[in-house]
Design brief:
single chain, 260 residues, alpha/beta, Rossmann fold, three-stranded antiparallel beta sheet, 15 strands
């Protein structure tokens, strides 16, 4: 059976091409029931990506504008992609946590899912610079939150501190969880936006252990901004879609590889 996120990507692609399609037509295109299409459209409508019209749907013009912007990175869309894999990765990441410790949580959708999965019986001190992560942490009042503020970037919901990353540099964490947009054997670990790099590197520098959360679709991909190389991490957590080539590469580098 086709994965949910892949099917929803195809729905969005079909709507972008045809502007408006009926539920019946979409069901025929994707070879699924009209009930399945209706559930997918309800989800996409809740994310602000589509609008319902008389038994069919159209792409939301505001979503289309953001999706075709120069950044080409719309957080709601990225949150939807590979959701099942990211949830499994997040659950595996929580198994590393002590009941009480200080951690840093990066921006990125994989880290957002980790924030959602943090156990209620843990009492953590969490340093973060991501609005959607902070919003999830607020739902868990047993945790103490330190926020690295700065310039807010809508496309990633990240705060970039141009004044020196004071909160991060004056703190120490036992563990940092980092996300990435790409992982290439020869070109290293990359991210879509250059403004993310300094914060990610600082978080790695001021933490005892660095953990990379990355779904398997990112392996072999290269983004424009080089963040770091594999040697800066002790642990990489990914899903079962990782290729043997990248599995061997990570293990041969002496890293702990956890497959969710």
């Amino acid at each position: 059976m086709e994965k949910i996120d892949t099917r929803r990507e195809k729905i969005l692609s079909s709507l972008k091409t045809n502007n408006v399609l009926s539920i019946t037509t979409l069901a025929d295109i994707l070879k699924v029931s009209t009930m399945t299409i209706r559930r997918d459209l309800e989800f996409l409508a809740g994310q602000g990506m589509v609008q319902f019209y008389h038994g069919g749907a159209v792409i939301n013009p505001q979503f289309l504008e953001k999706d075709t912007s120069p950044n080409n990175y719309y957080l709601q869309q990225q949150t939807m992609l590979h959701r099942e894999e990211k949830t499994l990765i997040a659950k595996k990441a929580t198994e590393l946590l002590l009941l009480q410790e200080t951690i840093m949580l990066d921006s990125g959708t994989s880290i957002y899912y980790l924030a959602k999965e943090l156990p209620d019986n843990h009492s953590l001190t969490v340093i973060s610079w991501s609005l959607n992560v902070i919003e999830e942490l607020i739902r868990k009042p047993q945790n103490k939150i330190l926020v690295q503020g700065g310039i807010y970037h809508q496309e990633t919901q990240m705060f970039e501190n141009t004044q020196g990353l004071d909160t991060i540099k004056n703190s120490r964490a036992s563990r940092v969880f980092i996300s990435a947009g790409g992982f290439h054997i020869n070109l290293g670990i990359t991210t879509p936006f250059h403004y993310e790099v300094e914060t990610k590197r600082a978080a790695i520098k001021y933490s005892m252990t660095s953990v990379l959360l990355i779904d398997s679709s990112k392996f072999g991909k290269v983004c424009s901004a080089h963040m770091t190389d594999i040697g800066d991490f002790r642990t990489i957590i990914t899903d079962s879609g990782i290729s043997p080539e990248y599995e061997d590469h990570i293990r041969s580098a002496g890293l702990e590889l956890i497959i969710a």
